[in-house]
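Handoff note, outgoing to incoming analyst
You'll be picking up this chain. Sequence as last confirmed:
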Amino acid sequence: MRRMLASVGGVGLAVMLSQFPEYAQQYTQRLGGAVDELRVVTADFDNAAQEAGLDRDGALDRYQSSSDTFLADRGESMERTFVRYDQLSQTLQKIQGADPLERFKNLPSFLDTDIGRRTLENYQPAVPVTMEGLFYAAAGFGLGYLVVSGLVRFCALPFRRRRLYYRS
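Most recent structure output, in case you need it:
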């Protein structure tokens, strides 16, 4: 009975962990799309500033020094856009340069909550046919088997028969 339950636990965790590479891949694609779009916005702003004879900082200063609150607010919004672009670009480079174990270990620090949430909302499970997916499945099976087996043994302790030894 213990082995059967442990095997079920192992298979369950294997299925769950084998999905990590697919989630990481879908997250990376979304992150890359966000970086690409922010690159377009940033380049468009920089080109418009250059055509006006300004650099980015000069153009932002002009926005912020405006007495028009709409323009001043728009300048602050563009600053936040540039900061987000830099952060997401750096994160994308880190993820793309990480090996499978680094990605797993550091995923929480890589996650942008907005992109991560949207990835989960639209996540599509996949059968792990890569070596990375099979590695996570095998690790999940082993870990799940050991955890469930240990739990079953622990829960069965009060019901275990004790052998009595009689000396004659």
